[in-house]
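User: Predict the structure for this protein chain, please.
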Amino acid sequence: MRKLPYIEPTIRTIAGALVTASGILLYLRPDMKLLWLVLLFFVSLNLFQSGFSRFCLMEKLLKKCRFRSEMDEIKSLNKINAEHLDTLNLLSEVVVELSWEGKIVRLTDSWSKLRGKDAINVLTCPCLGRQFSDYMHFDDRAALKQLLDRLKENEVKTLRFRMLREDNSEHWIEGKFTRYGEPRLHPVIRGVLRDVTESYLQEKHISHMAMHDALTGLPNRVLLEERMGRAIGQARRSGLKVAVLFIDLDNFKQVNDVHGHKAGDQLLVSISTILKETLRDSDTMARWGGDEFVVLLQGGQHEDEACDVAEKLMAVIQQRVLVEHIDTKVTLSIGMAVFPDDADSSEDLLIQADKALFFAKSQGRNNVQRYSRMRDSDLGYQEVGMTARFAAAVSQREIQVNYQPLVDAGSGRTVGVEALARWHDDKHGWVSPATFVPLAENLGLISDMGQQVLEQSLVDFRQFLQQDPELHLAVNISNRQLFSPNFMQGLLELLEEYGIQPAQLKLEITESIALLGIGNVKTCLKELSDAGFCLSLDDFGTGYSSLSYLHEFPVCELKIDISFVRRIHTEDGRVMLKTIVDMGHAMKLRLVAEGVEDAETARILHEMGVERLQGYNFSKPLPKDECMQLIGKQLPLSQA
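Assistant: Here is the predicted structure, written as structure tokens:
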């Protein structure tokens, strides 16, 4: 059908033409003046009415000619708008239209559900005309005002805020807003709102788990180092001191041996609770690992204040632990270091406090030692020389490599091995990687140590391949190694020397790599991936930016951190693990779980869909010759 959107201009044109023609005829035939005046009046009257009445003669004639009037267009547009609104009402999200001042103009039906109310008529809803911010948490309203101001740039803006529901409960809402309409006419703001409370709480839970110890609920190393950095920054500005107490439980091993690990865990929880209750709210207590804790004291003016706190902690533990665990004799050895007297950075402060702790234990335990006193009196330096001995061990290539099997979760077959660094100290025996790896990082020896482990593991892996050509080798690569000059070129040359293909080598990187800058990281990882290496994201879920940047990295595997695996026998732990597994599979990634210590854990992980398992249920890390006996064999999934 032909359309004539605006009929009045057409009518006026016709009327003008008729008036002009009538004037000419009157000039030529003056004798017909009366007749033409009557005709002109009649035509003008009809044309005048046709401009304003839908039922006029002219409109009917136009319709006969298959033209559409302005009213037809209005009806059609109203029908389209109504159908469009009906479609939007089918969405679970709320579509909202705001005035430039932030007042609600239009809503879709889902608004009532978002507010926790019964269904309402959105055309007569009392909220129409009210400020949208009236339904937001007071603390979030300023963010809305800023968003409205930024929308003048005509960009899409996202805002996450708390909505006050009908029952006064708070729900987290995510809204995307954009400007609609011409700025000079009647601009409005359109947005789409959705309830993200469940995902927000889940993100918050994951973040808490990543920053806190699973057993005690205390901050872990990541959170401790973050707070230490802030505390030292404030101390520099204020001229105050920051003290670190490195705490070790004396005789804790005997508790585990006599009463079992469950009793040991209960004791750790009790001690952490007692110590935390004794400290101020402004202090931070973190679990360092095993039976070691670190306390961060800030805002002091004198070193003696921190020493008084340490003495108080020792006294409280002796009193309360004897009451709660009558069969247990536990004391504390504490090493203390102070900023800026003993160190100028958080890393150095921890090292100095650790040295003082070693000295405290060598002095018979159950005492407090200050690093400054030990340094000034030259006491204990022979006892805390682990740093120098470790540096010598790396220099003399004394770092050893053990291997832990990775098994197929369904069959128990060994499909790979992970190379793990080990160090035996003449004085302290086998030193935990939790101790010497931070030493290597602080001393700048992590690249040298990693290179030794890589070269030794490739030599051994060549022998492993003789027993099982389909085996793969997993090697941990530090960030410093990864970004060292010519790392990939040197790695490819080593593989060629030993006759190993890149696809047989899996490079395990930690998610902290995201802190180095997403652009550089993507470039580096893409080069490795293009060269044929499999990239595995180690310790997944323990912090940093893994959830945000995971889709940016060309990884083929996620290695679930042991802290999540240990929670598998709790309901929350299983839910969290299942979430990680489903996310990994959605991104077409292979899942590996470390820290599998019993058959029941292995069974649950297999049922969840985890493809590969690693842990003491199958084998502890072994020297090369012992590990070779497991290559090509099927390990029982119930093996202890």
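The chain is about 45% helix and 20% strand.
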